[in-house]
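Two proteins were folded this term; both appear here.
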Amino acid sequence: MDIFSKIAAGEIPSYKCAEDEQFYAFLDINPLVKGHTLVIPRREIDYIFDMDDEELAVFQLFAKRVALAVGRAFPCKKVAQVVLGLEVPHAHIHLIPMQSEQDVDFRREKLKLSEAEFQDIAARIRAEFK
């Protein structure tokens, strides 16, 4: 079981933003900006494009609902959707509230947030998730 599967199963603590039977969304612990959220399938699959068409479509629809919640919780010009990363062998989407393209530069220094800040951010997104 990989780290993201353990997070979705509740074996590793996370700052949950949204979930359903198939997918789980939680805050990135090394965020680029406040509201930076990861969306994952509960099923372990390494590469997003190895998902069958139906699962990928439902995954995108779930991510859209999370992105809309992120945008309401953290008003921005757009919520970026980024698929990258080789560090965790589990398909995932980064949702990042952005005012400019610099907000999605993964080479930037990451925010250092307190436990209380993470909890507040996750609660704000959960409250907006529909």
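Next, the second protein.
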Amino acid sequence: MPTIFTKIAKGEIPSYKVAENDDFYAFLDINPLSQGHTLVIPKNVEDDYIFHLDADTYMGLCAFARKVALAIGKAIPCKRVGVAVLGMEVPHTHIHLVPLNSEADLDFRKKKLELSPEEFKSIASTISAEYEKL
């Protein structure tokens, strides 16, 4: 059975897409730690552990995530973009890219932001525009 992230990448479940290519998909986390919190996934591999990915998929995912992180850094005012790979919530490899102004901003136990659909759309559009410039 496909994971929720596979369904998102296939367009079966709506998302706030930030970037996409043939193999990878980036979209805003709907329970963000900060504005611009983005998830990056492989589209064609559902393994839940990043280190189980074959070398080409792993390296491709990291390169794609790097480009998305650079776009986030240009679109969202922050000191840097943090990276977290937990893989406990959804059984599909995913990388969290989180705009940070302090280390505390990467605490997954803290209360998540509540954003309107319009805010999500605006943030996704802004990051996507920066991604296209890279």
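Strands lie at 17-20, 24-28, 38-42, 80-84, 95-100. The chain is about 35% helix and 20% strand. These notes refer to the second protein only.
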